[in-house]
Amino acid sequence: MPVSKQDQPKQRAVIVSGVRTPFVKAFAEFLPLDTIALGDAAVAALLKRTELPRREIDSIVWGGVILPGSAPNVAREIALDLGLPPSVEGMTCTRACASGLQAITLAVAAIERGEADVVIAGGSDSTSNAELKVPQKLVRTLGPMMMGPNKGKATPRDMLAVLSQLTPITDLLPRIPKIAERTTGEIMGESAEKMAVRNEISRQAQDEFAVRSHHRAAEAIASGRFRDEIAPVETPSGKWVHQDTIVRGDTSVEKLAKLRPVFSRDGSLTAGNSSPLTDGASAVLIMSEDKAKALGYTALARFASWSYVGCDPADQLLMGPALAMPQALARAGYELDDMDLVDMHEAFAAQVLSVLSMLASDNFARARLGRDKAVGEIDPAKLNIHGGSVALGHPFGATGARMVTTMANELHQSGKVTALIGICAAGGLGAGAVLENAGA
Amino acid sequence: MNDILLQLGNNPQARRLVKTLGLPLPIPQTLARAKSAIEARPLHDYEIAVGGHRGEGESALLEVLAKTLTKAGASPLVVGGVEIPRAFRDHGDAWGRPPRGLLLDALPDELRLDAMVFDATQITDAAGLRSLYEFFHPLVRSLVKCGRVVLLARPPALAPSPEAAGAQAAVEGFCRSLAKELGKRGSTANLIHVDEEAEPLIEGPLRFLLSTRSAFISGQPIHVSARTVDDEALADWSPAQVRSLEGKVALVTGAARGIGKATAKLLADEGAHVVCLDRPADDELLSAVAREIDGTPLLVDVSDPEAPARIAQTLREDHGGVDIVVHNAGVTRDKTLARMKPEQWDLTVAINLDAVVRINDALLADDGPLLDDGRVIVLSSIAGIAGNLGQTNYSATKAGVIGYVRRLADELDGRGVTVNAIAPGFIETRLTAAIPVMIREVGRRLSSLGQGGLPRDIGDAITFLATPAAQGLTANVVRVCGQSFVGA
After folding, report:
1. pTM of the predicted protein model
2. How many inter-chain contacts (A to B, CB under 8 Å) are there?
3. Nearest in space to A245 (alpha carbons), one of A225, A221, A223, A269
């Protein structure tokens, strides 16, 4: 199964470094920083830490979900904000929660096709700065009068006609954005709640998973494991944010058990076992192998394969990784057992546990993957070893780059060989990727 | 369509008024109908009670029942027994629809069932029929409006003993009466007679009968056999369900209006290229239909002696053959026999029966355009089953169609071509709008669903028969009549 031109790349791309801002609960410390400002912070820190000569940078590829309407090409804005050479071109992509991984694989593909040697890829999102949307009805009614070919010539009668179309007034008030599927109208938590029921994931199992995520993240922070990956950010008011603010090392199953379900009265998903709305940014430096060598950088990891899939959002919205991860493994010529590490985006504990049960099911493999046997069970000791989105938070566009950074560093530091990444995304999308240790 | 009772029923205040005044008006339930092309999961989030009579060993239907329901998006509630059969656990696991057990003597308070499926194939004697009572009696009140009941049985004629034949035939009587009981709430009950070894082929019919696409079919037996499928294909049976007519060519006669127009649109929705045929006088209407669905208009009078050759030639040369043939064109020339003029007799017979035979002869000739695994669907009528005052000519042709279809099916088994008839009941079309008002009102109400059907109800049934998933149906006469009391 070929992946674009990966079969015969002109050169191999390697991951050299990655840095992210602290991940901060939405509407808190990062409120004054929009997605571009957060991106600026991550890329500036990456440049500082790697001491990368700026003339070497070919481009920035950036992922985001809530893009600023007035400047949607965040990548280019970052390059301009940071005073990078005008030749550093930029593009911004969006693939819901897999946007950050998408940006990285686009960068890898460009390098491996020989189109670039040095690319900064990553993503950011500021839920706090989501723009309130003026209803389309208002735009379509007033727009022609104000901007159309007959603008400025409206008679009082025209005005009245327009006004009569603009009732009731509630249709015209700006709406607070919510993460609802456009096609089904279901908010993501409701979809995940349904998945928990359909895959028989208990509240207890979800809470236990969430607690493990928090404990592992807290341990990574305490041990200094994240020191290389997180750069402190100064807010406009002069306050420094040094660390992720959502992680709770002192949480326990007993504490989480007290929380009320949030998406359905008798449901099992709570604020404690779901990923919270988060602000943050994450950036990864990717180079061709030769360039890295020439500039004296250590190659941490490279991509063996990746896969993006789609499934029906009205069925099991967040099951995508159960299809994408096996496909990525097959493209790289691996089985699940060959993986030393697995990192899965935790949109909801219920969603991760659902995907795990699908991967472990012979019946699922036969009906949905065309395999005789299950993909396999994932050893909890290999899975999300430094916590995941439930504990760390989930700035939509930044999560993919956060996961790639953590896995690349882990491969390099531990000497392990392979890591599998899985991300679910809105719209029924799923992403999978296999990383290999570049030194092994 | 102008059905005043249906409109009254749709108005909550009027409905309440009729009820309070105790008026003897049987207000029919507005039927839930499909809104889009055939979906991957037509039973999405349905709660379906599944039960059956336990014989010796496992029923041969377990596997296909479990797969069909879960894959189509339904959650099975498996009734009775100590243990849920493995097939339901396996397929539930694959499609994220874990089965739940349902104990009939301890039903949950707020049980709402979208459908009920009962496997009666293992009933071998009269005593065994009690399982029908035991399953349906406590559950029937939990069926939602416009709910579905499907029973599965073996064809009595193939039973191993007269006693077993009696038991299996009894299921049909049960089904027909249950359908009458359910009709006023818009619900339907139907029966699938499944041959031994044809089990995998019930997936399509089961999806269809449980879905909103069968809204106006009730109290009907459908026979599923494997006579048009070879063993190899049967072992690995999994036809496309969605957009399953892509790349196929369909011919629909009488496509300018009514049932033909609705059918042409529905076939096009599934991806077929539709050659829309009607009389030259209907050029304007026909062209509009063809344009709307990106089809091809073909202006031919089917009773013209040259018609068969021209149709065959057009299909062969312009379209590379034809996969689906729908003989829908038909006329009525109603008069009591004593008053009927000879030309009224001749025209009706020429269009309704003779043209069908002659066009098929041309399509099925050695160099004819009908392709293997094709479909021939001919419109009959309940008038052909029951007879109708003033329709000696029409009823003769429509009964003729039934005999013709059953015999033609035998000839085409080897080519994988299925041949079926559809017998519409009272459908709201130009034909029925012309009936005098009192007779029309009686025609509408004399059915379990208490209302006339829409052209799309016939179109839905035809479209289902045209799909690969309907391969198990041949030589069937499918009545789409809301279980009309006429000829039931």
Report:
1. 0.90
2. 33
3. A221
